[in-house]
Write a structure and sequence with these properties.
alpha/beta, Rossmann fold, five-stranded mixed sheet, two-stranded antiparallel sheet, binds zinc ion
């Protein structure tokens, strides 16, 4: 198979040289109550892999990163809840990265997946004089899940998306894992 990073022929999803370029990220507190654990820093090769995953539909990136997410699953977690992509983007880009990651982690760990977050249809932009700033995504619950929810998302940036997910699902959330994190 081809290395997802440098496209050299080999036996693994990522060759040793590329794997050594991934940098471990630190945890971050979300909504003052749960810890989000990104697997890698959102820079360099990790950033390129996530770009291929989110915008070019390279689904194998989920299988590549899943073992690293699985390492960070919090104690007390019983089910994986993917943070869904805004509907309009999912339709346009043909992939829901949070769900693909959750599915890959679920395959590894045997943990069930519950798609209980309802995404907004599109993401509004705040019209500004100089620049447009993106509004935070607001999720609604489809159902109230049992305790032990682990949120699964692709990239942790400001944390606003995960905060919205925590608000929607309430105290049953015990933690979050993401593929990469910016500024962590
Ligand atoms: Zn490589």
């Amino acid at each position: 198979m081809l290395c997802l990073g440098c496209h050299a022929i080999g036996h693994e999803l990522l060759c040793g040289t590329c794997r050594r370029q991934l940098v471990t990220a630190g945890p971050r507190l979300i909504a003052d109550c749960i810890v989000a654990r990104p697997a890698f820093r959102h820079e360099g090769l990790a950033r390129a892999l996530i770009h291929d995953f989110k915008y070019r539909g390279v689904v194998r990136v989920a299988a590549l990163l899943a073992p690293s997410l699985a390492e960070f699953l919090p104690a007390g977690g019983r089910l994986l809840v993917p943070v869904p992509r805004v509907v309009a983007r999912h339709l346009r880009l043909g992939i829901d990265p949070g769900f693909e990651l959750a599915r890959a982690v679920g395959r590894l760990t045997g943990m069930p997946i519950a798609r209980v977050l309802r995404p907004p249809v599109w993401r509004a932009n705040h019209a500004g004089k100089q620049r447009r700033r993106r509004a935070a995504v607001a999720f609604r619950p489809r159902a109230q899940p049992p305790p032990g929810v682990i949120l699964v998302d692709d990239v942790l940036t400001t944390g606003a998306t995960l905060e919205s997910a925590v608000r929607a699902l309430g105290p049953g959330v015990v933690g979050a894992v993401t593929a990469t994190g910016a500024g962590v």
